[in-house]
Amino acid sequence: MNIQDAPALSGFRATVRSWLAYNFPPSLAGRSEEMALIQPLYPEGEDWAAWKTAMADKGWGVPTWPKELGGGGLTKAEARVLAEEMAQIGAYSPIGGMAQNMFGPTLLEFGTEEQKKRHIPPVARGEIRWCQGYSEPGAGSDLASLQTRAEDKGDHYLVNGQKIWTSGSVHAHWCFCLVRTDRSKKHEGISFLLIDMASPGIEVRPLLLMSGNSTFGEVFFTDVKVPKENLVGGLTEGWTIAKRLMQHERSGIGARKQTHGEMRPVDVVAKEYVGRDSEGRIADYDLRSRITRHKMWERAHRLTVERVAEESKAGPSTATSVLKNAGSIMLQTRGELLLEIMGMKGLGWYGEGYSETELETLRVTLQNKAHSIYGGTYEIQNNIIAKRILGMQDHQ
Amino acid sequence: MAVLSAEQTMLKDAADGWVREYAPVSAFRKMRDAGQAQNPACYQDMADMGWTGILIPEEYGGSDFGLTAMTLVMEELGRQLVVSPLFSTALLGATIIANMADARQKMAWLPAIADGSLRVCLAVDEGAHHDIRHTALTATQTDDGFVLNGTKTHVVDGMQAELILVLARSDGTPGTADGLSLFAVQGKHIQRKPLGVLDRRDYAEMTFDGVKVAPDALIGPLNQAGPRLEQALDIARIGLAAEMLGLSQQAFDTTLEYLKSRKQFDTVLAQFQAIQHRMADLFCQIELVRSVVEHAARSVDGDAPDRTEVAIMAKSMANDLANLMTRQMVQLHGGIGMTDLHDAGLYLKRARALEALFGNTAWQNERFANLHGY
Q1: What is the structure's pLDDT at B292?
Q2: Interface contact B271-A299, CB threshold 8 A
Q3: Can you tell me the distance from the alpha carbon of A167 to that of A214, in angstroms, rounded to the nearest whole number?
Q4: A-chain residues within 8 Å CB-CB of B313?
Q5: Marked catalytic residue, from A34, A249, A298, A358
Q6: Measured between alpha carbons, how far is B6 from B11 in angstroms, rounded to an integer?
Q7: So what family is this one in (chain B) (predicted)?
């Protein structure tokens, strides 16, 4: 990339570069881990801890958040410089996840001063994990039909019900939760509540997925008392806040890349597993042409992520639905291509005879089937595009 | 839409306004009905607005505004299927001359392109598929220059061009990239006849029957024109991709408007989810192609290392988009979309011609794979 900064930014870039050189432990280079937003995956050794503390002290885990709440207080342009410099050396933020990407920005927009002062600083330091209490067994794509209810008991709300597909619930300290406070209305009867996962009456059960992982859980609420100060926004505003948070969620999801298993470009992997003809081409011509289309789509998706970032003045936009669907196609095509390329070597579930990379690639491919389901399914994104961007009215 | 400079925004708005007022698709339809493939008045307007000089350096009378600026114009022209020699002359011709010609040749041609008085075309293809390596038209060196023998086909704006840039084989055998040379020939020296192509633009078939040219007709190095011509063609491909992007965007917009007005089963078609989702998928694809086309133009303007790769991608993906979008335009309009009265057919026909021009999707994809060494 040909980077040409304004004078003020180039000074900042130099500062960032030397700070990173001093603080980022090279032992952690290249271990970018987006799944860490759901659960702690690595033994958090000394280097990790030191790096996390350094970033937390600087507020650079959440670079654009206000300084007084533990953020970095950087401008968008400065934050981009930070991200670029980190990418240069294979560094990544040890503070990132649902709390930082989705909950934090939403609370900063809708929360009271007291709520922000209480909940934002620990999120900025990456000390508190949050999970998202949205989906229910009877409320998937039709999220607003959720039934978990919160009754007004004077000085607190009493919450009863069940959430499902709650990412990271097993490890979460807190939950931002959609609850029904009014049964006579659908969307307007929903409220946005912050619930301490240590509250009596909460039970979490992990869900085993086809990938063999259990990143999701079921959360059961039985007579859980929630203080009234934990309501965000008004009683009828829950749905508005929920939608805003989902935009933050999708904008993160839409840009997501594969983070485990076989990370090399598919054509490089194919040359190894499938072999080449006498002129150096991948020996399977049909596969070769599908690889080309995938590589182009992958690049086009990445360019669109960059374009949307450049165009959007602030915050997520309806383009996030476009990115999410294009991203689903990209990730899932990549996974299936990799399995096809690896052939029988890609079928290993466990044990010897398969490399760690081969085993991981299968798992991550299965894991990524969720990409077109969570954060609003592929079909829901198409509904949003048709309705909000194309103005095609509600479908029947 | 990328973030544009103030000058680029002005240019885009001007192009949009001019096309709507003076060259809407209805104007193209009238030309077609009258059997005209050329519209000199339109082209003079473009020259007056400075479009002909966008890619020409200032010292030769242009504005050197860059490829991004040119793609903004191309996109607007594509929206209304505008017929003009802007592409062949001010984009392709000017790029070839600016990148390959010597100072004397530039001085002779570039100012005339910039002021709209000279129209240029590139005679490159000879068979069913584009590939400069297949060039068989021969250039034989003599004591006083070269003699050209052979035929060229589907030369865009070939009937109206005063100056013809012709790719010839001066060495080697067809199928190889080496041994190619580029010559400038005055139109009056060759035999041309119009081709009746489905999109009714000006296409010519040209016969070079012992055409003698002076040594100074040679543009660029003898036998080594291939690589630099391919680079110019890649710039042209980005221009074509922008034109197809505009065409696809308009096909989409026209279709969307129709879906919101056409009633069946007591409701507008836009109410049906099957149709909503198809349009949403198409919308996503248009957005992806837009990102690629805009990036490709910027890569050329900034001479970025990925310029060849993204030029290939732009043409390949815009080809597929235009193909799919025009098929859907016909399908979603139903019976009316099949008639000649409706514009859907015009969009589909233009799309097919642009898809084939300078390499279809399969060919671009083959280049992409070779570039990446797989």
Answers
A1: 98
A2: no
A3: 9
A4: 296, 299-300
A5: A249
A6: 9
A7: Belongs to the acyl-CoA dehydrogenase family.
